[in-house]
Amino acid sequence: IINLDFLAELGIQKRNPAFSTGRTFATLDPSRATRKIVSPTDGEVIAEVEMATQEDLDHIVATSQKAYENWKTLPAPRRGEIVRQIGEALRKYKDPLGKLVTYEMGKIYQEGLGEVQEMIDICDFAVGQSRQLYGLEMKSERQDHRMFEQWHPLGIVGIISAFNFPVAVWSWNAMIAAIGGNVCIWKPSEKTPLTAIACQNILQDVLKANDLPEGIFSYIIGDAAIGASMSHDTRIPLVSATGSTRMGKKVAEAVGARLGKSLLELGGNNALIITENADVEMAIRATVFGAVGTCGQRCTSTRRLIVHASQYDKVKERLLKIYPSLSIGHPLDESSLVGPLIDNDAVDAFKAAINKATSEGGKLLIGGDSYSKEGLSSNYVHPAIVEAENHYQIVQDETFAPILYLIKYDGEVENAIRIQNDVKQGLSSAIFTNHLLESEAFLSAAGSDCGIANINIGTSGAEIGGAFGGEKETGGGRESGSDAWKAYMRRQTNTVNYGRVLPLAQGIKFDI
Ligand code: UN1
């Protein structure tokens, strides 16, 4: 029996409001459609949420527009101070929020805590960033002219997040957007809205204490139609979306049709290469965490393991020894390393992918079936390893589940790099080697084509300080650290003439 006190601590009720504009939440209304939120861990209904309507979205957008008028004029370091307080509040609620992430999403508690830590870290990062929204000064070609650039906010940022990182990915977007002077409307995944409501409850105190207007941080709980409305809405200049490539293409099409901005973080098909010069034990640790961590439901999960022929048998043997010992179980039980998949559809997709792989010629080496135990939901599976070839259609696709495709390569590292790049997605990649020439080849222009390329580190578990995202069907967006803040801003080039005459650029003579 698990202790569910964290629900009350986070203000989660039996029935929860469809939206909030900050301090104010929608009043509960029995006539609204609702959705039951079932924990993937034990199949119990955690709570119900009311679903928002198109009119609710209109109300939120109008409120956000008003808030923006005020928020954009605050000095950026003042906005940073608000974000600092949000980070402090998150520190206070790290335990219960980590538990709710675990209970609603199914990742193990250590990872739930890790996710909240990412939120805290991005707050710290954003506080510093709030004093560093730097523009360049350029040297003007004209006498007595000064040329420079400024970064101004865009306005409303729509954030569509996925179930697998139900809160961290929102915070990367929202905190960076906020210090830049934007206001945010968050549509969490329909599968994990309770964590969003919990975040809003945590935020609310900070907004109140600072007497801030409604509409700076809002959430809206809705289905794909609400996401589509946000994508089409010209009042939302930027839509940042995380999720499947299929969803991302729809968002990009809708936003593109109105020439708005989108920031996309979509599917990955991440490979880890083990060369003949690798420290195999280190590579195995990285592979196992990458493949079975979060039950294979990270964008950065390791899906393909590309192993040099000289190491292949050893790697296979080690993995087949470790996989049976992985403790599968309730993710709040601290001894579990592998929790459940998010729902039954995900279990079906897992099994269908394995069938597809074997029908294309792959060999299932281990796992692939359901894991059942009293008190647990039917969403648990035994992580699978399949010997496969990169060109199989199923290997080309991202299946959001713990399936590791084992692929052999011969000869030079270039052969492995070619295999790793030969997919539609380009999020994360890793190579294990102690050979300088191999690692440099991997990082060169002819190397990995992914947004993330690691040496002797696995594909998942990136730090917030770097820009996060990838190429090709991964969508091209970059979130979180480095200069990702620029995606939430508009650049303005300014030229000032402090002389008494009007010279034209390019030396043009135009005498009137
Ligand atoms: C995601 O799966 O959408 O690099 C984000 C990682 C995490 C974030 C993953 N820091 O695995």
UniProtKB/TrEMBL annotation:
Keywords: NAD, Oxidoreductase. Residues 33-493 form the Aldehyde dehydrogenase domain. The keyword Transmembrane does not apply. It is an enzyme of class 1 (oxidoreductase). The active site is at residue 265. CDD domains: ALDH_F7_AASADH. Its EC number is 1.2.1.3. InterPro entries: Ald_DH/histidinol_DH, Ald_DH_C, Ald_DH_CS_GLU, Ald_DH_N, Aldehyde_DH_dom, ALDH7A1-like. Belongs to the aldehyde dehydrogenase family. Homotetramer. This is aldehyde dehydrogenase (NAD(+)). It comes from Flammeovirga kamogawensis.
